[in-house]
Amino acid sequence: MTVSTQTTQRPRKPHWSLARTWLLQPGVPDGADLFDAAVAGGADAVVLDIEDGLPDSQKAAGRAAVAEWLGGGHAWVRINSVATAAWSADLDAVAAAPGLRGVMLAKVESGDDIAATAARLPAGTPLVALVESALGIEAVSEIARTPGCHRIAFGLGDFRRDTGMSGDPAVLAYPRARLVIASRAAQLPAPIDGPTLRDQSRHLARETEVAKAAGMTGRLCLDSGHAETINSLLSPSALDIDEARRTLARLDAPTGAYDGSVGPTRARAQAVLDLAEKLGLVQ
């Protein structure tokens, strides 16, 4: 494999299981042009948001606009939580839409939330569980193992509101670790971290590195301008790829001690190359 140097074509968007940027585009009434622009941008996945992306007064009209646009366009939709009356109305509007890529379910707090939502969707529709509370974190293993759950996302803002925790990475290491471990144990893709706020763009790179260090492979995104940085930092770099190749070559022709560290080291290096290939970074 060689590292791709193509710059004249927009990189292909990866499968949702590998998606790094999940752009939350408010599902505003009469928003078709905005939805088109979001999908044409650099985010791996676009989520039309008819939950917190809209004030209550616009939810009905926004829901209708999103459902109409999905007649020809393709995107994910974030719907309201099972505990709200809007949940059923959201599913009535979008579940059968031909352009529905998948559903992001807000404020998931039990496996029952997943089961009830999956039962209302066409078989095989991907469902991302957005965990946003202390109760959700405590139930995350159950949520991850419930049939119909395909990936987990961290609703960072609502989680901090619920718990009173600060945004300090050391403080949030525990809930992030719970999401990563539960995802791995349930054989789901690694989870999606919360977003960087629009007025905090100066922290985008640092916060993305925190997510990566925690074992998360995607981030929610509130600003399309953040997508390029997130995609870059959550992808293997050319240096990462070269180092992985050198590691495999060294382990294939050992000159020193061969011990119990070799297997994990080899697996990590191979995982870097596998991800690079799936993202179209090598050929």
TrEMBL record:
Residues 33-222 form the HpcH/HpaI aldolase/citrate lyase domain. The keyword Magnesium applies. It comes from Mycolicibacterium bacteremicum (Mycobacterium bacteremicum). GO terms for molecular function: catalytic activity; magnesium ion binding. Mg(2+) binds at residues 132, 158. GO terms for biological process: oxaloacetate metabolic process. It comes from the Bacteria. Its cofactor is Mg(2+). Signal peptide: none annotated. Keywords: Magnesium, Metal-binding. This is Aldolase. It holds the Pfam family HpcH_HpaI. The keyword Ribonucleoprotein does not apply. InterPro entries: Aldolase/citrate-lyase_domain, Citrate_lyase_beta/mcl1/mcl2, Pyrv/PenolPyrv_kinase-like_dom, Pyrv_kinase-like_dom_sf. Transmembrane segments: none annotated.
